[in-house]
Amino acid sequence: MTSKKTDKFEFWWLLDLSDLSLDLNTLAIEWQKFYNKKRPHSSLNGKTHWEKLQ
Fold first, then answer.
1. By CB atoms within 10 Å of each CB, which of 2, 31, 36, 38 scores lowest?
2. Contact 44, 38 (CB under 8 A)
3. Which superkingdom does the taxonomy of this entry point to (predicted)?
4. How many domains does the chain have?
C-alpha cells in the first residue's frame, strides 16, 4: 500500500501525462508491485512490505 505522497513524488511526477500512448493502468500496477515487493522501507528496517507480511 503506497502513500499518496510517495505515489505523487516517485511515480506520477516522473510520467509525461500528456503522452497519450502511456498505458497508465499497467504502469500503476507495475509501480504497486515494485513498491510492495522490491522497494525497501526505512520504517520497516529496510524490509519491503511483502517481507514484513511474511
1. 38
2. no
3. Bacteria
4. 1
Residue 50: CA count within 13 A, CB half-sphere = 9
Q: Are 32 and 43 in contact (CB under 8 A)?
A: no
Residue 50: all three cell numbers together: 511483502
What's the angle, vertex CA 18, arms to CA 17 and CA 20, rounded to 5?
95
Among 43, 8, 45, smallest CA distance to 28 is for 8
Please give the grid coordinates belonging to residue 47: 524490509
Question: Which residues constitute the domain of residue 35?
Answer: 3-52
Q: Tell me: the pLDDT tens digits for 1-41?
A: 678 899 999 999 999 999 999 999 999 999 999 999 999 99
